């Protein structure tokens, strides 16, 4: 894999963050390891908006963070959609949810959901009707909880449907059932994505 820098990122790139020396990351990594998930060293997931910012579900909700500031010390493995239009659509969908959270503050992180994603894999993706209903709920100002890898899967399933692709063709799993390590496994075996490279800590 080549080393990537901010200038190399494309909208919609999926960035899987390597666990850092913080309690939440250590708990996620330990939980993934205990249930036998590979790639347990990956503890967070985000979507690239452009060459500088990632959009991610964090404790403050859906937020945008600069890769060369708050996330500068983090290392990432980067996966890229083979369809650039799908990537652009995912970046746009992520930005929409970011804007909604900034306005309403209702898209909060769920620690319980993150924990359950580690122990409960499987399930079917939301149907087009269910995704539309959830978006209508969010647009109306009602709350919805996301954790990091769930957010990435949901955004891509929604963007796929807007492009005339079924949600299950992108990720054939329910979005609340995907931990960061499980997402890495899905991406490795997914013909819609390629491993673009890695980003080293403090090298942007």
Distance between the termini: 16 Å
The number of helices is 7
How confident overall, as mean pLDDT? 92
Which sequence of SSEs, written as H and E, runs from N to C? Answer: EHEEEEHHHHHHE
- The secondary-structure class comes to alpha+beta
Morphology: globular
Main pleated sheet = 6 strands, antiparallel
Proportion of beta-strand residues: 15-25%
Spatial order of the strands in the main sheet? 4-3-2-1-5-6
- In the residues, how many domains can be counted? 1
What this model shows, in words?
There is one protein chain. By secondary structure, this protein is α+β, with helices and mostly antiparallel strands. It has one domain (6-199). The chain has helices at 23-34, 84-104, 111-119, 128-139, 148-162, 167-170, 180-188, and strands spanning 14-18, 42-48, 53-58, 61-66, 76-81, 193-199. The protein has a 6-stranded antiparallel β-sheet. A hairpin with a 2-residue loop joins β3 and β4 (61-66).
Which structural traits does this protein have?
40% helix; 204 residues
Topology overview:
Layout: E1 14-18, H1 23-34, E2 42-48, E3 53-58, E4 61-66, E5 76-81, H2 84-104, H3 111-119, H4 128-139, H5 148-162, H6 167-170, H7 180-188, E6 193-199
Antiparallel strand pairs: 1-2, 1-5, 2-3, 3-4, 5-6
Helix pairs in contact: 2-5
């Amino acid at each position: 894999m080549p080393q990537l820098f901010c200038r190399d990122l494309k909208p919609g790139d999926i960035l899987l963050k390597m666990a850092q020396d913080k309690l939440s990351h250590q708990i996620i990594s330990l939980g993934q390891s205990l249930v036998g998930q590979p790639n347990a060293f990956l503890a967070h997931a985000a979507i690239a908006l452009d060459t500088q910012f990632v959009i991610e579900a964090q404790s403050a909700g859906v937020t945008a963070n600069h890769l060369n500031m708050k996330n500068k010390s983090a290392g990432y493995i980067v996966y890229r959609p083979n369809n650039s239009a799908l990537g652009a659509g995912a970046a746009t969908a992520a930005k929409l949810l970011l804007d909604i959270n900034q306005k309403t503050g209702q898209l909060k992180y769920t620690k319980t959901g993150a924990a359950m994603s580690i122990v409960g894999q499987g399930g079917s993706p939301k149907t087009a009707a269910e995704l539309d209903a959830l978006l209508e709920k969010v647009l109306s100002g009602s709350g919805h909880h996301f954790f990091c890898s769930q957010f990435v899967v949901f955004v891509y399933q929604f963007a796929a449907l807007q492009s005339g692709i079924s949600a299950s063709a992108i990720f054939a799993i329910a979005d609340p059932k995907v931990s960061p390590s499980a997402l890495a496994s899905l991406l490795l075996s997914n013909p819609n994505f390629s491993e673009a490279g890695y980003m080293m800590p403090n090298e942007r």
